[in-house]
Recover the amino acids of this structure.
């Protein structure tokens, strides 16, 4: 979906809004400063807090139970909590649903330009810090505001909109069949390493315009980079080198792919700008979609509600995706935003240059919007997983298409798929940005041969680009640029809960599913 906030949108203030009671354009800023002053001396600034009293978002203790850490921080500090990043650098973690939306939708107060960070300006961020690949300023729309953001994001949005959505599904169908062919005869598989970690990158390399053989190494490098390990810098270098070769080749040999569309866009992106935007699209799409596929498969195979619904035909894979996007967002945190001036958020004193982390996982379970976490949220997409405002994920449609089509095709090919170990034995590993299911062992009836329609599926050629349409966005940062500040985000109403459905005690796996050809033609009609 596209962002409802455009950079040129006329924003009407609510009736009686105190920030608009006069015609003075600086009145709102003064109101913010007054609120800042009203906090008084008892509310210290971030840099004044003793490091010894702050909790780290990295290291074994934090990674053992990130959800528990978020809830403890919420109990201690409320909507916005002070925390420590790698190198014990202080930052604010935004925990509230409404506060997250305020930060996302108000670029005049919370910029994406990381060069504003006080720690950068004071030389306190080591060159080899694991934070650098994620937050070091680069010439791309993710770190831009205003007119430059509109120029760069417009090129990315147009490039992604030029992707044939039916072509995406054909790629997903082809690669799902190839991956299942590798383990189908065994009657067992581990779906994280054999399926979820491979499918998104195989599809994205085709959409970007990279050779297929780049895929396996890029899978390893992307995962290592997002974990923020000691080898994150080297992994980032590998990704950049692969993309640089692709850009050089596409200059001489253009094709119907994202790289070529960015190179030819009227915004006039330089080769370096093209490379950096391809990097952010590739990494964000891979990381988020891997997690979305793994967690959705786990939920389908273990959750009583979903087993019952899928068996009865009432629950769809899109419904399962929505629930996972609420309960286990592909990215737990997004770094970051930087305060453009002294301000107040969630009752905390935020100073110019402070770093804020968007707590997507914490915001999605905010008791204000989800008083009962056990109630399902079928069809409700007001979660924070794709962001909001000017930097809302532009590739979310493609990410959802890869996950939905891949899971649906997998369940069609292996209709009696079932978990091979007790659910209690499943484990996760966490890093400061995300949480990953380590393994998902499954069993099924061995398949010596795929159905004829799948086995005969031709190697899919490049998909011709279609004219860009400004209504289709796709993953983590591109939507029609909304613009400058909204006033504080409107209060979020508690999500209307849906009564949980009593799980039947029937089969523990999905029941009979439509034939492969019926499923495929259904996709193509969408």
């Amino acid at each position: 979906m596209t962002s409802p906030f455009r950079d040129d949108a006329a924003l009407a203030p609510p009736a009686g809004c105190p920030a608009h009671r006069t015609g003075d354009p600086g009145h709102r800023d003064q109101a913010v400063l007054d609120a800042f002053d009203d906090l008084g001396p008892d509310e210290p600034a971030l840099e004044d807090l003793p490091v010894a009293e702050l909790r780290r978002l990295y290291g074994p203790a934090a990674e053992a139970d990130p959800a528990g850490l978020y809830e403890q921080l919420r109990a201690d500090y409320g909507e916005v909590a002070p925390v420590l990043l790698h190198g014990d650098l202080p930052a604010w973690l935004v925990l509230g649903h409404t506060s997250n939306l305020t930060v996302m939708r108000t670029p005049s107060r919370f910029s994406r330009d990381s060069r504003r960070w006080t720690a950068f300006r004071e030389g306190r961020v080591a060159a080899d810090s694991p934070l650098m690949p994620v937050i070091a300023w680069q010439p791309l729309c993710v770190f831009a505001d205003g007119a430059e953001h509109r120029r760069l994001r417009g090129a990315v949005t147009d490039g992604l909109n030029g992707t044939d959505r039916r072509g995406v599904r054909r790629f997903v169908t082809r690669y799902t069949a190839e991956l299942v062919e590798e383990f189908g005869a065994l009657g067992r598989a581990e779906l994280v390493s054999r399926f979820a970690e491979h499918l998104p990158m195989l599809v994205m390399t085709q959409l970007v315009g990279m050779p297929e053989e780049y895929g396996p190494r890029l899978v390893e490098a992307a995962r290592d980079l997002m974990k923020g390990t000691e080898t994150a810098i080297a992994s980032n270098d590998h990704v950049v080198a692969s993309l640089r070769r692709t850009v050089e080749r596409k200059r001489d040999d253009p094709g119907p792919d994202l790289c070529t569309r960015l190179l030819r866009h009227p915004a006039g992106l330089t080769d370096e700008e093209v490379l950096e935007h391809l990097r952010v699209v590739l990494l964000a799409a891979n990381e988020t979609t891997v997690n979305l596929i793994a967690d959705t498969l786990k939920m389908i195979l273990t959750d009583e509600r979903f087993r019952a619904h899928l068996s009865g035909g009432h629950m769809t894979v899109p419904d399962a995706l929505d629930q996972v996007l609420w309960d286990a967002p592909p990215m737990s945190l997004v770094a970051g935003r930087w305060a453009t001036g002294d301000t107040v958020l969630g009752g905390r004193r935020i100073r110019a240059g402070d770093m804020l982390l968007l707590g997507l996982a914490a915001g999605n379970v905010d008791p204000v919007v989800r008083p009962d976490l056990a109630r399902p949220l079928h069809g409700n997409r007001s979660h924070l997983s794709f962001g909001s405002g000017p930097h809302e994920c532009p590739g979310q449609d493609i990410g959802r298409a890869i996950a939905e089509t891949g899971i649906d095709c997998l369940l069609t090919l292996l209709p009696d798929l079932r978990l091979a170990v007790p659910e209690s034995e499943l484990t996760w590993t966490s890093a400061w940005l995300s949480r990953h299911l380590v393994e998902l062992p499954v069993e099924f009836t061995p398949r010596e041969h795929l159905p004829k329609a799948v086995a005969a599926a031709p190697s899919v050629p490049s998909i011709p680009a279609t004219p860009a349409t400004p209504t289709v966005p796709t993953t983590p940062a591109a939507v029609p640029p909304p613009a400058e500040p909204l006033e504080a985000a409107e209060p979020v109403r508690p999500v209307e809960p849906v009564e949980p459905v009593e799980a039947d005690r029937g089969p523990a796996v999905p029941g009979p599913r439509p034939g492969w050809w019926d499923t495929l033609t259904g996709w193509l009609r969408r």
About this structure: The chain has 20 helices and 13 strands.
